[in-house]
């Protein structure tokens, strides 16, 4: 399936139910915007974040995006932020690059330097449950977690959840790699004391809006004479695993599915969630498989 066409359809579907901005779209100087925000006259926009060139190209080629001007981008800390409109909604979009640290850094810059009222993340993920999701499907998860925060136990100490010896082949047994305990993360926010969390919930109102907008969407099986083996679909309400390593090992994918009920794995979604929640911003996640 063409990621370009699929991305455009999903973004359009979501933005149809998002609040429309009545102010004229214009490129906002990031420094001046901060000053104006103190006076409550800043221009609120949606923030769109992507990790790959393909997803950025999807937006540009959709025919739905219009830049504010011929010079509607600004470079901050090596990232390029683009200002424009999508389906009548004012947006700022940025390509973050892969992995959680790049996502968190770029998204924090976006939220601090621009007046963003909510975040839409669009990225790729791998399916951990082939019965639920196959290549070409799209998932809208309801919760995400960092599953790469490990306390790697000393060999012979109290066992953690992940026991490497359970994966010895052809028979289980002891393994010098020992065991791993999965850790919670610290979440900070302006209005609450820091707390430890594992699952990070997607903003309920935006998840519900995405579900309503996309529940009847029919995804095309073929694009440009290339066809998927099955009919693609949109899957709602799953849980997703994020870590700094790509999960292509079936045994470990099965472990995440069996122990955490995680249906997908990627390197960015939990960073979107944590950064958005820490800044008390609305957000939603789309994953293409």
UniProtKB/TrEMBL annotation:
InterPro entries xrefs: Nucleoside_phosphorylase_d (IPR000845), Nucleoside_phosphorylase_sf (IPR035994)
UniProt source species: Populus trichocarpa (Western balsam poplar)
Segments forming domain Nucleoside phosphorylase: 76-279
Claim: Signal is one of the keywords in the record: yes
GO terms for MF: catalytic activity
Lineage of producing organism: Eukaryota, Viridiplantae, Streptophyta, Embryophyta, Tracheophyta
GO terms (BP aspect): nucleoside metabolic process
Name of the protein in its database record: Nucleoside phosphorylase domain-containing protein
Keyword Lyase among UniProt keywords: no
UniProt keyword annotations, A-Z: Signal
Any Pfam family the entry gives: PNP_UDP_1
Coiled-coil regions listed in the entry: none
Signal peptide: 1-25
């Amino acid at each position: 399936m063409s990621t370009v066409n699929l991305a455009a359809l999903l973004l359009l579907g979501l933005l149809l139910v998002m609040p429309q901005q009545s102010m004229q779209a214009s490129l906002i100087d990031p420094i001046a915007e901060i000053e104006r925000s103190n006076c409550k006259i800043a221009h609120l926009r949606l923030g769109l974040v992507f990790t790959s060139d393909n997803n950025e190209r999807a937006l540009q080629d959709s025919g739905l995006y219009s830049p504010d001007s011929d010079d509607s981008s600004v470079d901050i800390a090596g990232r390029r932020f683009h200002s424009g409109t999508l389906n009548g909604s004012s947006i700022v979009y940025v390509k973050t690059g892969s992995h959680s640290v790049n996502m968190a850094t770029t998204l924090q810059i976006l939220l601090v330097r621009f007046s963003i009222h909510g975040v839409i993340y669009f990225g790729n993920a791998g399916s951990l449950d082939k019965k639920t999701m196959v290549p070409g499907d799209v998932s809208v998860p309801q919760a995400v977690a960092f599953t790469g925060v490990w306390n790697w136990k000393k060999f012979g100490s109290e066992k953690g959840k992940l026991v490497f010896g359970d994966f010895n082949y052809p028979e289980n047994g002891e393994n010098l790699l020992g065991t791993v305990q999965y850790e919670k993360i610290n979440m900070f926010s302006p209005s609450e004391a820091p707390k430890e969390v594992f699952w990070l919930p997607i903003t309920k109102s935006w998840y519900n809006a995405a579900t309503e907008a996309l529940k009847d969407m029919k995804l095309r099986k073929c694009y440009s004479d290339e066809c998927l083996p099955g009919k693609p679909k949109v899957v709602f309400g799953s849980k997703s695993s994020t870590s700094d390593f790509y999960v292509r090992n079936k045994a470990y994918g099965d472990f995440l599915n069996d122990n955490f009920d995680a249906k997908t794995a990627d390197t960015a979604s939990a960073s979107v969630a944590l950064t958005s929640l820490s800044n008390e911003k609305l957000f939603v996640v789309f994953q293409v498989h």
